[in-house]
Write a structure and sequence with these properties.
The chain has 272 residues and is of the alpha/beta class. 31% of the residues lie in helices and 24% in strands. The chain is globular and about 55 Å long. The two termini are 31 Å apart. Bound molecules: hypoxanthine (HPA).
Length: 272
């Protein structure tokens, strides 16, 4: 696996230009791809162009790397990601994160669409992730440890960089953005939760629930890369506020959250 990752990283390095040294990795989740339009000097590389890379199967996820500059920072953007529910192993799911790590990113920013569980949340809002709960029943770090990437038992204390989060609270205040914060729980999906499952996930301490992000943060922390995460609240698993949800609802709410996130992420790039 290590050789596969190094090979993919070398291929990506050649395609984006050997002198482009990415500082920040940015994962754009469901319905949040529009920030990519803000990238300057953009180079696109589809995941399919990299040797041994999986190809995304979800229509709402484009599935490519974008290299470019955002507010003066050299950024590698993942427009679209792989999910466990697509049938990939978690080791495959985190391949793009591994590759970004091998190319030297010093901070990972992840975004996702999620169901809100905290009573104060509304759809179209944004939650800053302060911690996570892995409910996938699997980890990308299972199997023989790849010692070149990180330790067998990586520490997950303060997995979501607290100093960066403190900075983000100030940026949100400056921008007049109502920013929730809390714990993100990752489930397998692809079905959304039943009312009983939403109640359960709330009970065990989560503020939002989704089908991604946790494997990526595990892989990044394994490599010693500090992480920051945001959830676009696209539907509500809150008693009294639940109703049937379509992919269209999720995408429309993500678009709304995306506008807030874009303002916040652009400001964050300046200080990261
Ligand atoms: N549950 C799980 N994943 C999700 C949800 C949800 O309610 N909304 C968007 N992704």
């Amino acid at each position: 696996m290590y050789e596969v990752l190094v090979n993919a990283a070398e291929t990506l390095r050649k395609k984006i230009g050997a002198d482009f040294e990415p500082e920040i990795g940015l994962v754009l989740g469901t319905g949040l791809g529009q920030l990519a339009d803000k990238l300057q000097d953009k180079v696109e590389v589809s995941y399919g162009e990299l040797p041994d890379f999986p190809v995304s199967t979800v229509q709402s996820h484009a599935g490519k790397f974008l290299a470019g500059t955002l507010e003066g920072k050299k950024v590698l953007v993942m427009q679209g990601r792989f999910h466990y529910y697509e049938g990939y192993s978690l080791q495959q799911v985190v391949m793009p994160i591994r590759v970004m790590g091998l190319l030297g990113i010093r901070h990972l920013v992840v975004t996702n669409a999620a169901g809100g569980l905290a009573p104060a949340m509304e759809t179209g809002e944004v939650m800053l992730i302060t911690d996570h709960i892995n409910m996938l029943g699997d980890s990308p770090l299972c199997g023989p440890n790849i010692d070149q990437l990180g330790p067998r038992f990586p520490d997950m204390h303060e997995a979501y960089a607290p100093k960066t989060n403190a900075l983000i609270r100030v940026l949100a205040l400056e921008e007049g953005i109502r920013l929730h914060e809390g714990v993100y729980a990752a489930v397998m999906g692809p079905a959304l939760e039943t009312a009983a499952e939403y109640r359960y996930i709330r009970t065990i301490g989560a503020d939002a629930v989704g089908m991604s992000t946790v494997p990526e943060v595990l892989a990044a922390k394994h490599m010693g890369i500090p992480c920051t995460g945001f959830s676009a609240i696209t539907d509500l698993g809150v008693p009294g506020k639940m109703h049937a949800v379509s992919l269209q609802d999720v995408l429309e709410a993500a678009e709304q959250s995306g506008q807030i996130l874009e303002r916040l992420l652009l400001k964050l790039m300046k200080v990261l």
